[in-house]
Write a structure and sequence with these properties.
Layout (H helix, E strand, L loop, with lengths): L2 H9 L16 H7 L26 H9 L28 H14 L3 E5 L2 H10 L7 E5 L4 H13 L3 E5 L5 H7 L4 E7 L11 H10 L4 E4 L4 H4 L9 E5 L13 E5 L5 H6 L5 H4 L9 H5 L3 H14 L5 H11 L2 H20 L4 E5 L9 H8 L3 H5 L9 E6 L2 H11 L4 E2 L9 E3 L11 H7 L5 E5 L5 H12 L4
Parallel strand pairs: 2-3, 2-4, 4-5, 5-6, 10-11
Antiparallel strand pairs: 1-7, 6-7, 8-9, 9-12, 11-12
The structure holds pyridoxal-5'-phosphate.
The site of pyridoxal-5'-phosphate has 16 residues, from helix 5 and helix 6.
């Protein structure tokens, strides 16, 4: 970009002294620091503060009536969760909060979506995202390799509420999709980088299938993060996150978010016989549908008002603060997470005690081609077989099965033995006896969750120290 274009960006919103309020069009690294911030009229605070207030004052009787009847806000107080004219003033923090709104706008900007809703955990994000699309009697199709907690959520709570989930194992097999998708199917669900096996998904391929059947594609981008991959650029319609992980980044706060890409054609789906009444139907006689009122942001708005507000998984503003602050350094941290991961994955692959390393970005991995395309190594480096950065969560299988895994696990001293990923600290977990312990043996086998497999989440410590720790632990493997 030329200097003149840069100057244009910063001046196009008014005089040189006016604060920039719309960060669209700026680079990723600028938006992760600034998008969503707002000038503080009271004290000029530079950092958006933690707004600990459960509710919001109504100016007078008529203002209360208007806010509850969904009349557009006149006071401007509602601007923090939707600054379009259709937004009524805020009522209560279960629907939204100014601190969380900073995080929502920042994340929507980084993902390239139109709007986001922050919730209390990744599981809340997945449930809320899908409850806005499917009701009892409906059906969802998911790719088979997904986060263990999501598979448990689908198999237990979703099943209890009458929402059935079927899995597709080979995303390239049209016949398998054809068999799985029913008239009552309401979404296709997948992940950018599944863990523990780093078996990255060709989202463009899944998006093609979703488009063919008029289905919204929901992608869990927790492990990818928008710093590495932006699912909307690959055909996704909705993105969900466990913000507990890389986005907040320091392992201190549980949270989640739903991002609306604003791309799904709800009316075309309706015409094709797939109905999404929360988005396209009038909520009450006399009111217009969410789609009429909010256009491309209708899905996020429906999720906020008709799912999150009803069920109640709202995010604490304290955690919302940690989230918007964490995102300020996302790209820097991800660069380092990935650089160290590539170094460690390559090193592990050479060790005699290691049977296999599941890192798609390593040359020789069956998904290496896709890794280069989506997580690329620049073309000239890829031609020389350079690794591609498919995140920092991957599997390593040591020899000796469960006993080998036990010796290795117990021998680590810098790595923390714990469930969790995406922390500044490196972590290790034995999926077979933890996240996947309740899975039937045949599903574990099919997913490749063996007795010798360990999941690593590489943190921000020095690669040399981590390699020394891994080497000492491998020394204990017979
Ligand atoms: C951790 C995780 C979740 C669940 O998120 P919580 O914040 O722990 O509820 C969902 N999806 C993926 C990919 C995860 O890693």
């Amino acid at each position: 970009m030329s200097a003149a274009e840069h100057a244009d960006r910063t001046t196009r919103q008014g005089a040189a002294n006016d604060p920039i309020v719309d960060w669209e069009g700026f680079d990723f690294e600028t938006r992760e620091v600034h998008a969503g911030e707002y000038p503080d009229a009271n004290n000029g605070l530079r950092v958006p503060p933690i707004a600990l207030s459960a509710g919001y004052v109504f100016e007078d009787f008529d203002d209360q009536v208007e806010r509850f009847s969904g009349v557009p806000d006149r006071s401007g107080a509602g601007a923090f969760f939707g600054d379009d004219e259709a937004t009524p003033g805020p009522i209560y923090s279960r629907q939204g909060n100014p601190t969380n709104a900073v995080a929502e706008e920042r994340l929507a900007s980084l993902e390239g979506g139109v709007s986001a809703v922050a919730v209390s955990s990744g599981q809340a994000a997945i449930s809320s995202a899908l409850f806005a699309l499917a009701k009892g009697g409906d059906h969802i199709v998911s790719t088979a390799s997904i986060y263990g907690g999501t598979r448990i959520l689908f198999g237990r709570s979703f099943a209890r509420f009458g929402i059935e989930v079927d899995y597709v194992w080979d995303i390239d097999d049209d016949a398998e999709w054809e068999r799985a998708i029913r008239p009552s199917t309401k979404a296709i669900y997948t992940e950018s980088i599944p863990n523990p096996r780093n078996d990255i998904v060709d989202m463009r391929r899944v998006a093609e299938v979703a488009a063919r059947y008029n289905l919204p594609l929901v992608v869990d981008n927790t492990v990818g993060t928008p710093a590495l991959i932006r699912p909307f650029e690959h055909g996704a319609d909705i993105v969900v996150h466990s913000t507990t992980k890389f986005l907040t980044g320091h392992g201190a706060a549980v949270g989640g978010a739903i991002v609306d890409g604003g791309t799904f054609d709800w009316e075309a789906a309706e015409r094709a016989g797939r109905s999404f009444p929360l988005i396209t139907a009038a909520p009450r006689p006399g009111l217009r549908s969410m789609l009429d009122r909010f256009g491309p942001g209708a899905y996020a708005r429906a999720t906020r008002e008709a799912v999150v507000n009803d069920i109640g998984p709202s995010l604490s503003p304290f955690n919302g603060f940690l989230l918007h602050q964490g995102m300020e350094t996302l790209s820097l941290r991800m660069e380092r997470h990935v650089e160290t991961s590539v170094e460690i994955a390559s090193w592990l692959a050479e060790q005699p005690e290691v049977e296999c390393v599941d890192y798609a970005g390593l040359p020789g991995h069956p998904l290496y081609g896709l890794a280069v395309r989506d997580y690329g190594a620049p073309a000239e480096d890829a031609a020389e077989g350079a690794a591609a950065g498919t995140g920092s969560v991957f599997g390593v299988t040591v020899r000796g099965g469960r006993e080998g895994a036990r010796a290795f696990f117990d021998g680590l001293r810098i790595f923390s033995r714990m469930t969790g990923i995406g922390d500044t600290r490196s972590m290790v977990l034995h999926p077979c006896t933890s996240t996947h312990a309740t899975f039937p043996v045949e599903i574990k086998e099919r997913l490749g969750i063996g007795e010798g497999l360990l999941r690593l989440s590489i943190g921000l410590e020095s690669a040399e120290d981590l390699i020394a720790d891994l080497r000492a632990a491998l020394d204990r493997v017979d």
